[in-house]
Amino acid sequence: MHELSLCESVMQILEDNARLQGFNRVKALWLEIGELSCVEADALRFSFEVVSRGTLAEGATLEIISVPGLAWCLPCGKHVAVKQRFDACPVCGNFPLQVSGGDEMKIKELEVD
Q1: What spatial distance separates the first Cα and last Cα of the chain, rounded to whole Å?
Q2: 112 CB-side CA count, 13 A
Q3: How far apart are CA 12 and CA 104, in angstroms?
Q4: How far apart are CA 81 and CA 71, in angstroms?
Q5: pLDDT digit string (tens) for 30-63?
Q6: Terminus of the chain with fewer CB atoms < 10 Å: N or C?
Q7: The whole model's pTM is what?
Q8: Is the pLDDT of residue 98 over 90?
Q9: CA Rg, the chain, in Å?
Q10: CA–CA separation, 53 and 109 (whole Å)
């Protein structure tokens, strides 16, 4: 379950920014997670709850914003929505698609004290 290590990295980012920006507590956290990122939202929520215990983010609300998968089809030149890697192009049915979005995970917003 790589979601645990992802949450540990998020906590490190929060702690580093708390020192730099002078906040003591995270009340809410919004994460953008791409559909192609291979991150399981329920596992991430559970991991966040575990990793945040005893930290500045304990009890914080975790909001997950789903970002659609996007790809560029080389044969037809269209930007298309995809649900998983290696899908065929929904426009022309060909396979050489280049992922152009929806494979990331990033902190979108924080509410802090």
Answers
A1: 31
A2: 14
A3: 18
A4: 6
A5: 999 999 999 999 999 999 999 999 999 999 999 9
A6: C
A7: 0.87
A8: yes
A9: 17
A10: 20
DSSP code, position 76: T
Residue 20 C-beta-side C-alpha neighbours within 13 Å: 6
State the number of CA atoms in the 13 A half-sphere of 81 facing the CB.
5
Answer for the pair 70, 56: CB distance below 8 angstroms, yes or no. no
| Helix residue ranges per DSSP H, the chain | 3-21, 41-52
3-21 and 41-52 helices, crossing angle to 10° = 50
Question: Nearest CA to 33 among 47, 20, 19?
Answer: 47
> Is 106 exposed, middle or buried (CB count within 10 Å of its CB: 0-12, 13-18, 19+)?
middle
In three-state secondary structure terms, 47 is: helix
What does each C-alpha distance from 49 to 38, 68, 75, 82 come to in angstroms?
A: 20, 25, 45, 30
